[in-house]
Amino acid sequence: MYSLGKWGIEKPAEIVLNKVVTIMKENPKVTLEITSHTDSQGDDAANLALSEKRNQAVISYIVAKGIKKNRIKGVGKGETMIRNRCHNNVECLDKEHEYNRRTEFNFSKE
After folding, report:
1. 19 Cβ contact partners less than 8 Å away, ≥ 6 residues apart
2. 75 phi and psi angles, rounded to 5 deg
């Protein structure tokens, strides 16, 4: 969902985020928890900060589309939840690292 070291919302991500917005608009009692992640490349603290920027970018996008901010909460996890073998000091292909750069959505009903 993200380019290396970036937090901006790219065109392919807009498709997914617009679906999230539709779900939120069609279900006014639904709240959303957003969790953003990075790959393991770079400094752990910098990756945590990057994941927070990604999280805020997603929240800002959704709010700009008309969803009230009080229905959304989010957190950045940095590289604490790597989904494959690509932890610190492990040689991985770019595609493997890319798999860890993501934002996850958890919908809840009040």
Report:
1. none
2. -150, 145
H or E, element range at 29 = none
Q: Work out whether the CA dihedral 13, 19, 25, 28 comes out positive or negative.
A: negative
Q: Are strands 103-109 and 72-76 parallel, antiparallel or unpaired?
A: unpaired
So what's the architecture of 11-109 in CATH?
A: 2-Layer Sandwich (3.30)
What CA–CA distance (Å, rounded) separates 30 from 13? Answer: 21
Confidence of residue 110 (pLDDT cuts 50, 70, 90): confident
Place of tokens 């970018």: 57
pLDDT tens column, 41-94: 999 999 999 999 999 999 999 999 999 999 999 999 999 999 999 999 999 999
The residue ranges of every structural domain in the chain are 11-109
